[in-house]
Request: fold
Amino acid sequence: MSKAVLILNLGTPAQPTAKGLRQFYKYFFSDPNVFDMNPVARWLLRNLVIMPFRAPKTAKDYAAIWMEGGSPLKVYADRVQLSLQNSFNEANEDVLVLNGMAYSQPFISEAMAQLEQEGRDEIVVIPMFPQYSTATTASVFEAVNEAASKWEISPKLHFVNDLYAEPAFVRAWSILITRHLKEEEIDHVIFSYHGMPEQAILKADDANHCRFGVCCQQISDKNELCYRAQCIATTRSITEALAWERDEYSIAFQSRFGRQAWIKPYLDEHLQDLLGQGINRVAIITPSFVSDCLETIHEIGIEYKGQFMEGGGRVMQLIPNLNDDPGWCSAVLEISRRHLKMAEFN
Reply:
């Protein structure tokens, strides 16, 4: 069989303009996996609120973080893909590596069409979302399966479900943190994860097991797909690799919007609570992201940092994400090779 690795991301605007954001939002806010609401309400939100009002504002935020080669997420995704392809080529391994995006080019459907054209019928699919959720992992897996269903001969697909639990992922983060963390300047470290509505957690809880905090401390067969439990497990794995004590760090969730309840604690409120405890020198690590993006660079690095410093903070260090760090590129190569071997025996 002819092998390939397909690296998946949600996507990003092509340009930091209102037009570029509207084009991206047209796809993003149409996905029922991301916005689980009445279709009519979703259409009204997208077309009457998001497109005319949110797009111009967010475009300015993107412009503040835009890189020479485009959006940070796209730039780093391309660099990781190229590094992975070069590594396979140098080792004389016939593996094609492609990127696929859910809501921007190269679309997952386009990447899958290229793989079919190239005759790559054994595909390892790696989502760049370390923790599982229906809004990210399930959504892109659904897109891959839908594209594969249109092939004349169905490909053999091997999905990487638990990136957060991959030893190479944990190792890459622990090395990166050790290199960048200015421990002598920091009193406390916060692991910040992208937020999720509580209702989305409850909807995915078929076993009616969720108790928000009580049941998240250990992964079991009842909560193995619980996003919050996987975030806690990610933190545990990284801090154990770093040999940190429990009082040295905490966990919070960012990027909420709307009036519904999201999983807690909220990062902005948590930062203020720490200030109230006299902790004014913090570092923030973001292991629910693989690449730095609007939510890390702008939301945390600019907005939340401004609030923290205005509230009496002295130091707020944002640890860079894995991005195209050589250790991360090596980790993705290791993960890819391991799952390519696993696929051979499935």
In short: The first strand starts at residue 3 and ends at 9. The mean pLDDT is 92. The beta strands are 3-9, 95-101, 122-127, 156-159, 188-194, 249-254, 281-285, 315-318.
